[in-house]
Amino acid sequence: MSPPSPPTRQLWSSQSAFVLAAAGAAVGLGNAWRFPYLAHEHGGGAFLLIYLFCLIVVGLPLLVAEAAFGRRTRRNPVDALDELARTGGRSANWRFAGAIGLVAGFVILSYYGVVAGWVLAYTIRSAAGVFNRVTEDGTGHIFSELLADPERLLAWHSVFLGFTAVVVVRGVRRGVEQAILVLMPLLVLLLMILVAYATTRDGFQTAVRDLLMPVWSDVDGQSFLAALGQAFFTLGVGTGSLLVYGSYLPRSSSLIRPCLSVLAIDTLVGVLLGLVIYTVLAEQNLVSVEGPRLLFETLPVALGQGPWGRWLLTAFWLLLACAAWTSAIALSEPLVAWVQQRWGIRRPSAGVLVLGSAWLLGGVSLLSLNVWADFSVFGVSWFRFFDQLAANTLLPLSGLLIAVFGAWILSRDMTRSELGLGASGFAVWRFTLRYLTTGLMIVVVLDFSGALSQLKRLLLGY
User: Fold this and answer.
1) Are 430 and 409 within 8 A, CB to CB?
2) Which residues are paired to 214 by β-bridges?
3) Does residue 1 form part of some domain?
4) In the predicted structure, residue 57 carries a pLDDT above the cut 70
5) How is the chain split among helix, strand and coil, in percent rounded to 5?
6) Distances from the Cα of 370 to the Cαs of 144, 227, 260, in angstroms?
7) Burial level of 179, CB count in 10 A (0-12/13-18/19+)?
8) What's the Cα-to-Cα distance from 435 to each of 264, 326, 406, 408, rounded to whole Å?
9) pLDDT by residue (tens digit) across 249-271?
10) What digits encode the pLDDT tens for the residues 341-368?
11) Residue 270 sits in a domain of what CATH number?
């Protein structure tokens, strides 16, 4: 049975709105807690060059492919791949590639709401002066206390997803676009304030050296894998977010230029955040770490000192809150579009259903940090299990299938007509997607599944 006809589609008011929305999907917490650390540990500018290469050969082709699928079909990820496959005389089972992305996005949205709740809690605490002159042991205690308090975690989790729901149910123009046009400029303004502060500090030159100067002696095979994984995960491809955002693009819009702009914005935000973070780490002689420990234990000590520390730290948390909200909105959109088109219900009902379900599943992750800490699945907490399931399995698999579908399943004529490229430009894009992107996505899948490590041990004996 063919998918139902798509409802009347709202479109972005301009191509710039698409760029900001797609950049908002890409810019997230990983730009702060993972990218700067990877650059610092893997050769600074050398890692950055490898990362840019991976963005061009993996991120850009996948970004363009998803946006093209959405614009051509005006559907959600499942029905878009179903329609494209049927039109090209291929198996309709390719819709399951879109379904995998939807499941990955839903799982990520559920626990992302929990982590974003921490960010909101820390924003209020910073403004209240909780971190004034605090030590790293003190921030560790504060963070542990927060994780041990299920009621407080649930309240912030609810606030975050509640705001996301309010945006999503209002539609593309009145909800998503209006929110993005506020959150993204606010994010940029806060980032500029923090960068301006960093340039006045003694640690800025050290940060520039550590993050931007190439040190090729620190680069190894693991550096390439880290850059490859970051290039894939940072853009939000694989969840269907960019496909649905692409479905709101007018037919006359180009695809390559906006997608290049998204890559540039995401990279620039990551680099500038890294400079801010490593400036204050160097000034306070603090050790480089990654993940939640960097944001919630180390940075409050590094950035919260001095007469302006409270407000600089508050600005930092507000910036992360903006990034988290734009990412959550993007994660919600494919799910809302699918529910609308699958069951023919109105957008407000679909939005409440999706965000309400994510709230419930996020509650499982939340309780596994405290009340249900003694319960585990496959030896890890539910929070960790959901993270591994989505980030290490479903998302890389979805990205690989999207690459294969665009490169090997769709006809040359169909993709060429949608991209609007000249003969040489299309040939480069198709070759890159077929061989480089697909091949490197296989490496990503093997690496994050652990199969690559097993293969290395088998071949090299360690």
Assistant:
1) no
2) 44
3) no
4) yes
5) 80, 0, 20
6) 10, 34, 43
7) buried
8) 24, 32, 12, 10
9) 998 888 999 999 999 999 999 99
10) 999 999 999 999 999 999 999 999 999 9
11) 1.10.4160
Q: How far is CA 79 from CA 61, 85, 87, 193, 394, in A?
A: 21, 10, 12, 43, 19
Range of the domain at 349: 15-460
Residue 25 near residue 326, CB atoms below 8 Å:
yes
Tokens representing 343? 């069951």
Please give the DSSP secondary-structure letter assigned to residue 287.
P
> What pLDDT does residue 285 have?
87
- 10 falls within a domain: no
Gap between the Cα atoms of 177 and 181, Å rounded = 6
Distance CA 226, CA 208 (A): 21
Residue 87: alpha-carbon gap to chain centroid: 31
Asked if the structure places residue 5 within a domain, the reply is no
Taking residue 382's Cβ as centre, other Cβ atoms within 10 Å add up to 21
Question: Is 336 a domain residue?
Answer: yes
What is d(CA 415, CA 421) in angstroms, rounded to the nearest whole number? 10
Please name every residue paired with 377 in a beta bridge, in sequence order, or none if there are none. 380
State whether residue 44 is helix, strand or coil.
strand
Number of domains in the chain: 1
Residue 459 has pLDDT above 70, yes or no: no
Give CA–CA dist 377/387, Å, rounded.
12
